[in-house]
Amino acid sequence: MSTDRAETVTLRAPRHRVSRKAIWYWTVRAVIGWLVVLAVEFGWLVNAPTLGLPVLVLLVTVVLAVVHLIVMPRWRYRVHLWEATPAAVYTQSGWFNQERRIAPVSRIQTVDSERGPFEQLFGLANVTVTTASAAGPLKIHGLDYATAQRLVDDLTRTTQATPGDAT
Amino acid sequence: MTWPGPAEDARPDARPAAGEPVPTGDGIDPSWRRLSPRMLLVHPFQEIPRALPAIFGLFVAGTASGNQWWGVVSLVGVIGAAMTRWFTTTYRITPDYVQVRQGLFRRRELSAPRDRIRTVDVTAHAVHRLVGLARVEIGTGRSDRTDEGVRLDGLSAAEAARLREELLHHRPQPVTQPVAEAAPVAAPAARPDVEVVLATLRPSWVRYGPFTLSGFVAVGIVAAFLSRAINEWHLDPTRYGPLRALAAHFTHAPVGLAVAEVLAACAVFVAVASTVGYVLAFWGFRLTRHSAGTLHITRGLLTSRATTIEERRLRGVEVSEPLLLRLVGGARCIAIATGLRVGRGAEHGGTLLLPPAPRAEAERVAGEVLRDPAPVTAPLTPHGPRAMLRRYTRAVAAVVFTIAVLIAGWWFAGWPAWIWQVALLALPAAALLAYDRYRSLGHALIGGRLVARQGSLVRRRHALACDGIIGWNIERSFFQRRAGLATLTATTAAGHQRYEVLDVPQAEALRLADEATPGLLTPFLERHPHPHSVIMKDPGRHSTPNPS
C-alpha cells in the first residue's frame, strides 16, 4: 500500500519446521497437564453429594482436553519455524500474535542448547540464541537433537570468526 | 568475572592508613588503599536513618521494660557497624583492574577490568559534600542488571574527579602539585583536552518543574507516613487545633466542595514538590563534550552528580514529552547508550541529557549530541489510515465494553445509573487519545538512524543509529494481519534494548528494516510482480484466516 513499485516485497516465512517428534512431545506434556486437572475433578466427583454438576464439568473438561490435544501440537508444529543462514538466524512463533525475529550471526553473543528429561526421551533439544540486547532472545523449541547440535556448532563457529563485542 | 591471581599482591594492607595517597608518576597507585578516613563521619549519617525504625523500636521496648539503655546501646552498635565498613574496605587500581575488597563476615572482592569500564559516575550527597568527599561508581555495562558494579564510597572530591578522568580517558597524567581540596566535584579546568559546553540550565526552566509530576512521589511518601503515624501512634487529628478546624470544615462543607478543595490542595502540593525536586536534581545542570570522546553531565543542588558517557557507546538519543510537559511546550532529552540503564522517574538514571526544558532547546541539544539536527527535527512519514483506524478501535472499544458492562449491571443488577452516565464521558476522552496517538505515529530513516515517534501520555521520538541495531522483531497480531500492519522492533544493546515502530504498513516495515541493515533481510524477502498479492503470507495458512 505504500510502495509505488510494480512489485510487492514480502517477508517469507522461515524454511524449516522443527522435528515431527515435537508433536508427540507436546502432546505428552499436555496430557500430563490435563491428567492433573482431571484427577482434581475426579476427586471432587467422588466426594460431591450430588453427581450432576461434577459429571458435567468432567465431561466438558474431557472434550476440551481432546480438542486441545489434537489441535495444539499440530498447530504449533505448523507455526514454529526457523532458518539459519551463514549471515542470520530467523525464527517465527505465535498462534494469533505472530512474531518473527531476525538476528545477524555477527551480533550473536551466546548459543545455548538445552534438553529437559522429557525432551531427552523424545530425542529433542531447545536452542536459544541471544544477542547483546535484553529484548527477545531467539528460541527454537523441539529441534531434533542432531539438528540442534549441528546448528549450535555452525553458529558457534561463525560467531567466533567475528571480531568485536557485538554491541 | 576474571579474577587476578592471589599471589599477585599478597600485601593487602601495604598502605593501610593512606586515605589520601600521593599518586605515583603515572597517576596510578597499584597498592591496596583505604577510602578517605573522613568516611568515618559519613557512614553513621548514612546508616542511622536506615536503622532508625529498629533503634526506635528497641528504645520503646527498652523503656517499656524499664531499661532505657537499649536505645543507646543499639545506637552505638549501629554507629560501630557503620564505622567497620571503613576498616573492612580496601581498593586498588592496577593498570588492568579496579578492585574492591569489602565485608567483615562475608568478604567480597569485586573487580572491574579497566578496558570494560563504560561509565564512571561521581556522586556527592549533602553529607559527603560537607566533608569534601564523593562516591565513585564504575559501570561495566553488564546486562544482568542486578549487579551494581564497583563502588568506591568516599574518595576526596579531587581524587574522585581525577580517578574519573584517569579511568575514562586512559591518559595517565602526572600530578605535579599535591592534590588540592577544591570544589566538591572539581570542574575540569586546566586540562589539555578541549571541552565544549552543549547545554547549561537556565533558571527560567524551573517553570517546567511543576509539570514533571515528580512531586507525586513526595505526596505518596507524605501520605504513607501520615497514615502510618495516625494508625500506629493512635493520633487523633481532631485533637490538634488547626486540624480540628479543618476537620470541622470538611464535615460541614458539601461533598463536592470538599472534594474540590482536597484535589486543589493536592495539586498545589504536587506542583510545589515537583518544582523543589526539579531544583534539587537539576540545579547547575551542565552538558559538555570533551575532545577525548566523552559527554560529561554535572548537576544537582545538594547532591551533586557527575556522569560521563563515552561517545563510542552512544547509539542515539530520545526526546520525550510527557503529556503535561508537552502541553506547556516542554521536552527532555535522554541518551541511548550501551551499558547505561534507562532509569525511572524524572532523573532517568545517568542517561538524562537535558532536564525538562523548552522543546526547541531539547531538540537543539539532541541535534548537538548527534552532530546532526535532522533526525530530531525532520518531518516523519505518517503510518496511514489503517493505523489511524486501529488507534480508534483500540481506544474506543475498551471504553464501549466497559460502558456496556455498566449498563448491563444497571439494567439487571440495579447498579446506580450515574455510574454508566459518568462513564460515557470517557468516550470523547478515548477518541481524543486515539487522535493524538495517531498524530504521534511517524517514522523515517535519516542520516543512518532509525527515527520513530509514538505515544500520547508520553510522546517519545527516538533516533537509533542503524549500526546499533542488532536484530529485528516483526510482530503481527491477528488484527494487525487483517489490517496489513506490523510492529517493527529494532533490538539493541543500548537504552531500552528495544525500539518500536508501531503499526507501520507491512511493506513499509520491510523497506525500513532492509534499508537500515542492508543485506540482513535480503535472503528472506520475496518479490512479487503483482501489487495486490498477500503481503508476508503465512505457510500455516490453514490455521489463520487469510489476511487479505
Automatic annotation (TrEMBL), chain A:
Coiled coil: none annotated. Residues 78-153 form the YdbS-like PH domain. The chain crosses the membrane at residues 22-45, 51-71. Keywords: Membrane, Transmembrane, Transmembrane helix. The keyword Transmembrane applies. InterPro entries: YdbS-like_PH. This is Membrane protein. It comes from Planosporangium flavigriseum.
UniProtKB/TrEMBL annotation, chain B:
The chain crosses the membrane at residues 69-87, 211-230, 262-285, 395-412, 418-435. Keywords: Membrane, Transmembrane, Transmembrane helix. It comes from the Bacteria. Residues 1-30 are annotated as: Disordered. The keyword Cytoplasm does not apply. Residues 86-166, 445-511 form the YdbS-like PH domain. The keyword Transmembrane applies. It holds the Pfam family bPH_2. This is YdbS-like PH domain-containing protein. It comes from Planosporangium flavigriseum.
